[in-house]
Design brief:
heterodimer; A: 319 residues; alpha/beta; Alpha-Beta Plaits; 11 helices; 13 strands; elongated; B: 267 residues; 77% helix
């Protein structure tokens, strides 16, 4: 990644409204060539709309965008020749087999018979779809469909790849496999623009992150830079009773979130000294702590800090 | 790759895809080609004996009774086959447009018209195959065309041109439909038009008003052209009308379909 190369994606002041509903409200995004960029935000933040505009599927109402150096409106065909898109919903031909789907992509990319066949075989191997290659896609599992979808996107060796929520709805094993695939892809030098609602996913995969909330970029930077925006970390205390929580909150000067519950979040730098001091205060007051965990600042805190609301947590096991 | 060869290559690829899909999902094709055959059997064996009394021997191709009616109705059944077949086109197009893969096609550098052309060509091939099958069944039941090679080729030309036009129309209807269910209903009026013309009984037997409609609507022009070419009834101006209708419908539907296809971009 050198600074002299033009950015793979450059969007300035993108605006889009569907009727009364403003979905994008002046979004600026720059993605360096060869990097992985994550657009992070909750449902309805405008992530998919962003991908649809950048991949020439829909036109923006205002602003400009260039992908691989080409304007997405004036040079849409040149953009299409350099991109690959894997949408949120599998874009497969259900009636065809996995191999036939890939062959279709090879034909539409004008690879020619021999090169097309070789590319299809290579991708079937790489995405572990050889055994299922000749079965109709309608019999594929969720993880297999995503892998085939991604393989189809890669047939034409695109320079810029858009992945719209690549792991939403996948089980933890498939999810981790998808992460590995994305990392391998990133290592090969392509530019990846992905959207996600999962903070750990952005943290794990992306060089640069933009947090999108209600159509606006509310924070931008590397994961480290974003975390720096949040002062310190916190400890999470679990107390015996709601009553104990109220007392503890008063003692420690922390504001409990909500009336009920036994959990309390207290800001701290995470040092042993600070922790000991904290526990001493509670001990002296005779408040029993059932459970304690220390949290260094993560993107969760960032999201909370910049949007004022907690981000969506992933529904199944954290790797 | 130049623009023209890109269009040809991509259209051929899409046509292959759609033909393969038809083979994978044959139940719809079977249903669509089965219906005209069932109706033909029904009309010939249930109504045919009675209906044949109203036909002169000229219209019945020189045959009497049921056989005479079969020789009269066969061109109408062929048009019914076309109308049923393009109903499948609308369904398949709507299925494609509501599925995820269409967005993939739209983000690829392929000829803009290839997606639609692929549907039209594959459907046309399906329609011609259905027509061949229905013709064979008709012949097996006693249809005895008097046409020579030129007559058969002429009939093939007329029905192909009309089928091409209706396929574009059905493609536009499939694109205009918001759901697959709608798409399966909207082309039904085409089958009705076969009955509201000279497909099953001569227009002259209908009440005034309906008779005028039946005489001048496109299906009658094509039916009478086919009937003339295959069984030797007089064609008159129907031939030129059939070609004019076909070209007109094809052009208007093509423009409409392409507009509908492009409109989605602003959504």
């Amino acid at each position: 990644m050198t600074a002299t190369r033009p950015p793979a994606i450059e969007a300035r002041g993108l605006r889009k409204a569907f009727g009364e509903l403003v979905v994008l409200d002046g979004v600026d995004v720059v993605v360096e060539t060869g990097s992985v960029f994550a657009l992070l935000g909750p449902n309805g933040a405008g992530k998919t709309t962003m991908i649809r505009i950048l991949s020439t599927l829909i036109d923006a109402d205002g602003g400009t965008a260039a992908v691989a150096g080409h304007d997405v409106v004036a040079e849409a065909d040149a953009v299409r020749a350099s991109i690959g898109v894997t949408g949120q919903f599998a874009a497969l031909d259900e009636l065809l087999t996995g191999r036939e789907n890939l062959r279709l992509m090879a034909d539409l990319n004008h690879l020619g018979r021999a090169r097309g066949r070789a590319r299809v075989d290579e991708l079937l191997q790489r995405f572990e779809l050889v055994d299922a290659a000749d079965k109709p896609v309608s019999t594929f599992s969720g993880g297999m469909r995503r892998r085939l979808d991604l393989a189809m996107t890669l047939v034409g060796s695109p320079a810029v790849i858009f992945l719209d929520e690549p792991t939403t709805g996948l089980d933890p094993v498939s999810r981790r496999a998808m992460w590995d695939d994305i990392r391998t892809l990133a290592a090969s030098g392509v530019t990846i623009f992905l959207t996600t609602q999962y903070l750990d996913e952005a943290d794990q995969l992306a060089h640069a992150i933009a947090v999108l909330d209600r159509g606006r970029v509310v924070a931008q930077g590397t994961a480290t830079e974003l975390k720096r925006q949040v002062a310190g970390g916190h400890v999470r205390l679990e107390l015996a009773t709601p009553q104990a929580r109220r007392e503890a909150a008063e003692l420690l000067g922390a504001t409990p979130a909500g009336e009920d519950g036994i959990e309390l979040r207290v800001a701290t730098d995470g040092s042993v000294r600070a922790l000991r001091a904290l526990l001493d205060v509670l001990d002296d007051a005779g408040i029993e702590v059932e459970h304690l965990s220390v949290h260094t600042p993560d993107l969760d805190d960032v999201f909370f800090a910049v949007t004022g609301q907690p981000a969506e947590r992933e529904p199944v096991g954290t790797p | 790759m130049t623009g023209a060869s890109l269009v040809l290559t991509d259209s051929a690829t899409m046509t292959r895809r759609n033909l393969r899909r038809m083979l994978r999902y044959p139940s719809m094709t079977v249903l669509l080609v089965g219906m005209p055959i069932v109706l033909m059997v029904l009309f010939v064996y249930v109504f045919g004996g009675q209906l044949s009394h109203g036909l002169g021997t000229g219209l019945a191709g020189g045959h009497a009774g049921r056989a005479g009616y079969l020789n009269y109705v066969a061109p109408g059944v062929l048009l019914l086959t076309v109308a049923a077949s393009v109903q499948g086109t609308a369904i398949v197009v709507a299925m494609d447009m509501t599925g995820g893969i269409i967005d993939r096609f739209r983000t690829m550098a392929i000829a803009r018209s290839a997606v639609l052309t692929g549907h039209v060509l594959a459907s046309l091939i399906q329609t011609l195959a259905s027509l061949a099958l229905v013709t064979l069944v008709a012949i097996a039941l006693g249809f005895r065309p008097t046409a020579g090679v030129a007559g058969w080729l002429g009939a093939l030309g007329v029905v192909t041109l009309f089928g091409f036009a209706l396929t574009w129309l059905a493609t536009a209807l499939g694109l205009a439909a918001k759901s697959v269910e709608t798409a399966s209903n909207t082309p039904m009026f085409l089958m009705l038009l076969v009955f509201l013309g000279s497909g099953f009984v001569p227009a002259a037997t209908m009440p005034a008003g309906l008779e005028q409609f039946a005489r001048y609507q496109p299906f009658s022009a094509v039916t009478e052209s086919l009937r003339g070419l295959l069984t030797g009834t007089p064609i008159g101006s129907y031939g030129i009308e059939a070609v004019a209708w076909s070209v007109g419908i094809a052009l208007a539907s093509y423009v409409w379909a392409l507009r509908l296809y492009r409109r989605r971009r602003r959504a």
